[in-house]
């Protein structure tokens, strides 16, 4: 009858969030056919166990170096690789829109979180220094992960709080977020928040951004 009996959301390394059991159905299948061990939180994969908290297997690859130089690796980084057909991993190109489920974060270093532009971002947007114009966000698995990434990159400016939003929610208010790996300290975790109307879009819709980012962590 089309009734939902189970649903969940997945984080990028395979953790489930907001698991909902509508019909007393225990669904334990996880990434690539792995089976959840609910007692340990590990995912069983026939030859070894995978830990979604760290994004790694906990024992070495049974085929040794034939599977790659990193014997514990799950896959090429799912933050920057996609596999839409399930056939082969494809790196996201710079400027490509991020998937709807991607979470991005804005960091505050001076107290409780409140979305705002810093002066350098305002200057870059108004002077067209970036094409397309936009502001930096961190792509991460969770608020705690975003704070860890920020603090590792900028230890002299530690995060005090963080705001979170999904790419899907940004698109609902007319914005977009694109893959924008930087040559700086954030590297592959750097993404750019943009608006199709450029500078005018940012100036006219800043209030919507403030209401969409959810303060968390810190």
Radius of gyration: 19 Å
- In total, the number of strands is 14
Indicate the structural class: alpha+beta
SSE order, one letter for each helix or strand: EEEEEEEEEHEHEHEEHE
The main β sheet shows up as: 6 strands, antiparallel
Average pLDDT for all residues: 82
Low-confidence stretches: none
Strand content: 15-25%
Counting DSSP H or I runs of 4 or more residues, the number of helices is 4
Share of helix among residues?
10-25%
What do these coordinates show?
With 218 residues, the protein is of the alpha+beta class. It has 2 domains: 6-75, no CATH class; 103-216, no CATH class. The protein is built from 4 helices and 14 strands. The strands form 4 sheets. It has a 6-stranded antiparallel beta sheet. A 4-stranded antiparallel beta sheet has the order 3-4-5-6, with no helix packed on it. The protein has a two-stranded antiparallel sheet with strand order 1-2. A hairpin with a 4-residue loop joins strand 5 and strand 6 (56-57). The model has no long low-confidence stretch (mean pLDDT 82).
């Amino acid at each position: 009858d089309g009734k939902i009996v189970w649903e969940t959301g997945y984080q990028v390394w395979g953790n489930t969030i907001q698991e909902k059991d509508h019909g007393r159905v225990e669904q334990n299948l996880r990434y690539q056919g792995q089976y959840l061990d609910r007692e340990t939180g590990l995912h069983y994969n026939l030859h070894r166990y995978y830990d979604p908290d760290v994004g790694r297997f906990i024992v070495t690859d049974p085929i040794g170096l034939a599977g790659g130089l990193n014997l514990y690796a799950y896959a090429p980084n799912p933050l920057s690789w996609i596999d839409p057909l399930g056939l082969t991993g494809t790196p996201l190109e710079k400027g490509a829109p991020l998937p709807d489920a991607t979470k991005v974060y804005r960091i505050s270093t001076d107290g409780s979180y409140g979305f705002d532009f810093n002066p350098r971002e305002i200057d870059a947007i108004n002077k067209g220094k970036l094409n397309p114009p936009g502001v930096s966000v961190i792509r991460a698995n969770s608020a705690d992960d975003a704070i860890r990434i920020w603090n590792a990159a900028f230890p002299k400016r530690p995060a005090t709080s963080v705001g979170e939003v999904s790419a899907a929610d940004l698109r609902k208010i007319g914005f977009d977020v694109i893959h924008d790996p930087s040559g700086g300290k954030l590297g592959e975790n750097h993404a750019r928040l943009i608006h199709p109307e450029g500078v005018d879009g940012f100036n006219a819709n800043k209030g919507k951004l403030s209401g969409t980012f959810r303060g968390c962590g810190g």
